[in-house]
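HOLO CASE FILE
Compound: iron/sulfur cluster
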Amino acid sequence: MAETPTTSAPAARPAPAKRPKPVAWIDPHGCSGEPCQVCIAFCPVDCIRLVTNDPEFAGPTGYCVVEQEKCIGCNLCAMYCPWDDIVMVQPPALAATPVRG
Ligand code: SF4
Ligand code: SF4
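Model generated. Tokens follow.
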């Protein structure tokens, strides 16, 4: 006997939980700063800048900082940093990210 075709739509599945995309974070203590700037050269959205006037951090060559609200998470800076000083982090974890001394 043939099956009777059903006309009712399948139950809607709940939307999958979406995690925020990881963004780049630079450890200021490990960054070579001004003489390097490799990460700045590779960033496709220009969201990394060099900081040289931070009174809390007396390094002579400064360090780089990611404007994380603009970061698209492409990972290029982390791939090309010669000192492996860039990590990709989940935005909510930023406040708890330890800084190496
Ligand atoms: S590539 Fe790495 S070491 Fe060089 S400026 Fe960027 S974060 Fe600093
Ligand atoms: S992950 Fe990509 S977009 Fe984000 S700071 Fe690095 S190079 Fe720029």
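CASE NOTES: The helical segments are 38-42, 76-80. Residues 26, 31-33, 36-39, 64, 81, 83, 85-86 surround iron/sulfur cluster (ligand 1) (CB under 6 Å).
CLOSED: yes
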